[in-house]
Amino acid sequence: MAGEPQADCLFCKIVAGEVPATIVRESETTVSFRDINPQAPTHVLVIPKVHYANARELAAAAPAIAADVVREAGEVAADEKVDATGYRIVFNTGPGAGQTVFHAHAHVLGGRDLQRLV
Q1: Which of 38, 50, 84, 91 has the fewest CB atoms within 10 Å around its CB?
Q2: Element containing residue 3 per DSSP (H, E)
């Protein structure tokens, strides 16, 4: 069921503490951790603690939590000290967009020139 932890979801397992991750922030509704295959010097994933397959489903079903993800992404950027130089927040939605874990998440990228497409 949407919103409920999924036994086969990597990110649900990270939220539950069953899979290790380098956590950089945690709020009541989100967990933020370093990407294991970083595409920039700062590459942190911000995930909701509830399970929705993608950003569209999260925004439709739990808009306040979707807003929390975006707010936390900004806090990650500030903590990582990339807020002044610029950063990118990316939601990949669907396999054609590069989504490989089907639990809504935002990528926070910074620390290098991001003017060209990633």
Answers
A1: 84
A2: none
In order, the DSSP letters of 72-116 are HHHHHHHHTT-TTT-EEEE---SGGGT--S-S--EEEEESS---S
State the catalytic residues.
105
> Residue type at 78?
A
Give me the count of residues in the chain.
118
Find tokens 């509704």 and name the residue: 29
Characterize 97-115 residue by residue with b for buried, 16 or more Cβ atoms within 10 angstroms of its Cβ, and e for exposed. eebeebbbbbbbbbbeebe
State pLDDT tens for residues 41-99.
999 999 999 999 999 999 999 999 999 999 999 999 999 999 999 999 999 999 999 99
Check: CB of residue 118 under 8 Å from CB of residue 90.
yes
